[in-house]
Design goal:
alpha+beta, 6-stranded antiparallel barrel, globular, 1 helix
Length: 107
């Protein structure tokens, strides 16, 4: 049985940076939820890999988190957020709530 998503994805187009040990690679965050992301990268990854992601929700709102790769379909990667600071989790939640509120009101 296929895994059913709990949360709606928020479409984005944010440049970021992926780290795996000493390797750093640019990426683009394509969409996100409070529990995961889908991104585009040239970094070769496999399901189960753990990566560090840094990107900005807005110019004044940087986010850093640890990901575990769930699925790979080059050049796209789907990953679960496995570790994020309380402050960054609150920023992410607030950002998603504000975007949802804007979409609900028709703006």
């Amino acid at each position: 049985m296929a895994h059913k998503r709990e949360l709606f994805r928020i479409a984005l187009d944010r440049k970021g940076e992926l780290r795996r040990e000493d390797t750093v690679s640019p990426c683009v965050v394509l969409d996100l939820t409070e529990k995961g992301v889908r991104l585009k990268t040239d970094l070769p990854v496999r399901a189960g890999d753990r990566l560090q992601l840094q990107f900005r929700l807005t110019t004044a709102c940087p986010i850093t988190c640890t990901l575990q790769v769930a699925r790979v379909s080059p050049p796209c990667v789907g990953a679960t957020i496995t570790d994020i600071s309380l402050e960054d989790r609150q920023k992410l939640s607030r950002f998603i709530e504000e975007l949802n509120a804007l979409h609900m009101t028709g703006f």
